[in-house]
Amino acid sequence: GHSHFLAPWSYLVCFKDSDLRARWHMNAAEIEIELHQRLHRTRSGKPALSFFDGSTMVGYQVPHKAFETVYCRNEDKPWDCNHYMGINPEWASVPMSHLEARKSTVGEFAGRGLFAAADIPKHSRLAFESSVKSFHILPSSWSILVQLY
């Protein structure tokens, strides 16, 4: 959030337990429900919050990319700027140009899909360079995945 400043600001938030952290990382819809349930109605019937909603809160959850860039430009470059969150960057990566979205040739009602336009070696990663840092699972989604498996 810009907080009426000309550039993005960042906030440091700490939690004593994982339940509070999970609440911080709720998605916009979950936040909207919480706001609706917890805020008292105004006498005028106007919204209680003028400049805050679920989407605004989501903007506070992850620091702006500019802060990561500044952090990684330190003279003593932090170790985590050289790693891909535990994934070996030397693993084979298949560029997106080796994939194509098209109608399936399996049958008349097979639909559309993503298909290899060139041979892909076993155990390769898809578009590794561009996708490794953009993967994020919200705590509420993670709890559903854990229940499924």
Distinct helical segment count: 6
Structural class: alpha+beta
Beta fraction: 5-15%
Give the total of beta strands: 4
Low-confidence stretches: none
General shape: extended
Compute the gyration radius: what is it? 22 Å
Order of strands across the biggest sheet?
Answer: 1-4
Cα end-to-end separation: 37 Å
Average per-residue pLDDT, rounded, comes to 80
Could you state the order of secondary-structure elements as H and E?
Answer: HHHHEEEEHH
* Helical fraction: 25-40%
Largest sheet: 2 strands, parallel
Keywords for this entry:
149 residues, alpha+beta, extended
How does this structure look, described?
The protein has a two-stranded parallel ribbon. Strands 2-3 form a two-stranded antiparallel sheet. Strand 2 and strand 3 form a beta hairpin. 32% of the residues lie in helices and 9% in strands. With 149 residues, the protein is α+β, with helices and mostly antiparallel strands. The radius of gyration is 22 Å and the shape is extended.
Layout of strands and helices, then pairs:
Blueprint: H1 18-24, H2 28-38, H3 54-61, H4 65-72, E1 93-94, E2 99-103, E3 112-116, E4 125-126, H5 128-131, H6 139-148
Parallel strand pairs: 1-4
Antiparallel strand pairs: 2-3
Helix pairs in contact: 2-3
